[in-house]
Design brief:
- The complex is a heterodimer of chains A (347) and B (119).
- By secondary structure, chain A is α+β, with helices and mostly antiparallel strands.
- Chain A has 8 helices and 18 strands.
- By secondary structure, chain B is α+β, with helices and mostly antiparallel strands.
- Chain B is built from 2 helices and 4 strands; from the N terminus they run E-E-H-E-E-H.
- Chain B has a 4-stranded antiparallel sheet, with helices on one face.
- The relative contact order of chain B is 0.14.
- The chains are: A alpha+beta (347), B alpha+beta (119).
- Chains A and B meet through helix 2, strand 3, helix 3 and helix 8 of A and helix 1 and helix 2 of B.
């Protein structure tokens, strides 16, 4: 729905469906369509009506990023999905680092911290949470990795070179040097997929001749709520679809200025008159409010129930799998409380 | 992820003496705005609910106080149960719609595979 010239919308419809961006504040932020608020409207939850109005349109999808529209849902639930994507979808990450030898410049704890943040490409759905903190860890809840590297002088370097890349061997420790050590039956279960960091060019530490790193790492399953290293997304965010309406015809030089007030591609000049072509591209900078003659010519609002999600994965799981898992996490939360309600006879 | 041998409460009910079953505060442990706000929305949309709200008592404790007051003498566990069921159904429908949309995307164009080039 693109803004038409002088579209009149019922005030009530506007309060129910739009968030208005004003000069000094934002109006109609909260959802108000609860039963009893508006006489003449039946706002009780109706699953049929929801299913009829709800749709998901995938705009862009590749290995690491996804952009999709969720239309016809309330902000509370859309936000729940966003929060779950950030903090409650589990992944595997390095948790315990057993340092057998670290003669590098990087302190033990700093090294361990950096190792924890390296994303590990292992499907967390194939592993379980570690139940007790004391145990060694078994093949179903732990991945064992090893980093063993020693820096030495390059015997074949020319006499007076100053380039570290020529003088030393193994002086940069990258994530590709982290090797997987299968325990138990993992070698059979993961026969066709190697467990390794997602990216092999993450610089972990730098060494000089004589320094070495000998480290065993245990990966466990965790969620972002516990530590940000477990978060499966680089980020997950949403914005609401803007709704730009021109309240009066704007033409000529004013139209040119109006065009520059919005992001490129939003406003187009057709027959000298400005028209809103694609409000989705706008970033709602509200620049037009700084021009006194354009201030009252535009009405800037957002659709309350149209969410444009952007999910960027760290590479552990593809973004569409992440969204699916997030929706399942919310379902599991509901089921947990439902079974709790059913099992205990609450007085 | 509860510890073995320890009984940690997940859901408690607190009711004022003398009040009817329709005004109850539920204490949900290990929850925050994620479930709190979405559940509050579903229960507010139910008919016969006079009041529904939730608070996070202290940000250091991960529990929420969820209050429901119903009209008439409907026990408060009813809208809670129906709200949870409906939220679960909404999630199921969102999941189905998403899967359908994904399969359409894969059909229309083989997904744009951008090879990650190492820097």
């Amino acid at each position: 729905i693109f803004g038409k010239m002088a579209e009149t919308m019922n005030i009530v419809e506007e309060i129910r469906n739009r968030v208005i961006l004003g000069e000094y504040n934002v109006k109609n932020v909260h959802t108000s369509d609860y039963p009893g608020n508006y006489p003449g409207y039946d706002d009780t939850w109706d699953m049929q009506k929801f299913q009829k109005n709800f749709r998901i349109d995938i705009v862009h999808l590749d290995e690491s990023t996804m952009e999709f529209d969720m239309v016809g849902i309330d902000a509370a639930i859309a936000n729940a999905f966003r929060r779950i994507l950030l903090a409650e979808v589990p992944t595997m990450a390095i948790e315990k680092v057993f340092i057998y030898n670290n003669t590098s410049i990087v302190q033990d704890e700093v090294l361990a911290h950096r190792l924890g943040l390296v994303p590990i490409k292992a499907d967390p759905r194939l592993f379980e949470y570690r139940t007790s903190a004391e145990e060694e860890g078994s093949e179903i809840d732990t991945i064992q990795l090893q980093l063993k590297i020693k820096c030495s002088r390059n015997p074949r370097a020319t006499k007076d070179s100053a380039d570290p890349r020529e003088l030393y061997l193994n002086h940069m420790v990258y994530s590709r040097d982290i090797k997987w050590v299968p325990i138990g039956n993992q070698a059979d279960v993961f026969a066709d997929s190697v467990i390794a960091p997602v990216h092999d060019d993450i610089l972990i530490a730098q060494l000089r001749p004589g320094q070495e790193l000998d480290v065993i790492m245990h990966c466990v399953k965790g969620i972002g709520q516990d530590h940000a290293k477990f978060s499966p997304v680089a980020t997950a965010s949403y914005r609401l679809l803007p709704d730009i309406t021109l309240l009066e015809p704007v033409e000529g030089e004013r139209a040119e200025r109006l065009k520059r007030c919005f992001s490129r591609g939003v406003i187009d000049i057709q027959d000298v008159v400005a028209k809103v072509v694609d409000s989705r591209l706008d970033t709602c900078s509200r620049e037009f409010l700084r021009h006194d003659d354009l201030k009252n010519a535009v009405k800037l609002a957002r659709f309350r129930d149209h969410f444009i999600f952007t999910v960027e994965s760290t590479g552990i799981l593809p973004p569409d799998v992440l969204v699916t898992e997030a929706i399942k996490v919310l379902m599991v939360k509901c089921q947990r409380f439902l079974s709790e309600l059913d099992s205990t006879d609450l007085e | 992820m509860a510890g073995e041998g320890e009984k940690k409460p997940v859901l408690e009910m607190v009711q004022a003496d003398g009040a009817d079953e329709g005004c109850v505060t539920f204490v949900l442990h290990n929850e925050d705005h994620t479930l709190g706000n979405s559940l509050r929305y579903m229960i507010m949309k139910t008919a016969d609910v006079d009041f529904c709200g939730y608070t996070i008592t202290h940000p250091s404790e991960s529990k929420i106080n969820f209050r429901i007051q119903t009209r008439g003498s409907i026990p408060a566990t009813e809208p809670l149960r129906s709200g949870l069921n409906e939220l679960s159904d909404v999630c199921q429908h969102v999941l189905n719609t998403f899967q359908v949309s994904l399969s359409i995307t894969y059909e229309i164009n083989c997904p744009v595979v951008v090879q990650h080039t190492s820097v």
